[in-house]
Amino acid sequence: KCIKILTRIEDPYEILEQKTPAGRYLYKKYEKINTAYQEIYNEAKKALTKDKFLVHTYKGEQSFSSEVSNELLHFNPKKVIIVGRIKEGEVRMSLRGSGKNEILPKLKKALEGVNGYGGGHEYACGAAVKVEDFDKFVENFKRLF
φ, ψ for residue 84 (rounded to 5)? Predict the structure, then answer.
């Protein structure tokens, strides 16, 4: 529905200044989604320590794992980031790293012996692990750094 409305917007200020009913509708949608995102992001930031790793899981209707992990890495480029959403008995996660913190080869090794799967790029991956195997997965993953 939002995409259809977006195609009819003639000027970005319709949304930003909520000049039209369509603009007001889209802005309210944005506010709702942004509030949910900010809650998850702020909770994840609380997990920041001097440790090399930031691991955060959450439950929710919407998935923000990728976006939250990207933003956390942007502001903490020396960290290895794992942000996962708990859904249907799995932790579905986004893993991020930079510099010497390559993710993909370590992810593949960390998944050995746990009920899960994953893949992606050198520094940005996605994975899913059964909730009961998540702690073992994180332990395996950390040991590889």
Answer: -130, 145
**In this predicted structure, what is the pLDDT of residue 1?**
84
Q: What is the 3-state secondary structure (H, E, C) of the chain?
A: CHHHHHCCCCCHHHHHCCCCHHHHHHHHHHHHHHHHHHHHHHHHHHCCCCCCEEEEEECCCCCCHHHHHHHHHHHCCCCEEEEEEEECCEEEEEEECCCCCCCHHHHHHHCCCCCEEEEECCCEEEEEEEHHHHHHHHHHHHHCC
Domains parsed from the chain with CATH numbers:
1-46 (no CATH), 49-145 (3.10.310.40)
Q: pLDDT tens digit string along 7-28?
A: 999 999 999 999 999 999 999 9
Q: What are phi and psi of 50, to 5 degrees?
A: -75, -10
Closest CA to 53 of 77, 92, 85, 79: 79
Cα–Cα separations (whole angstroms), residue 116 to 9, 16, 92? 43, 42, 10
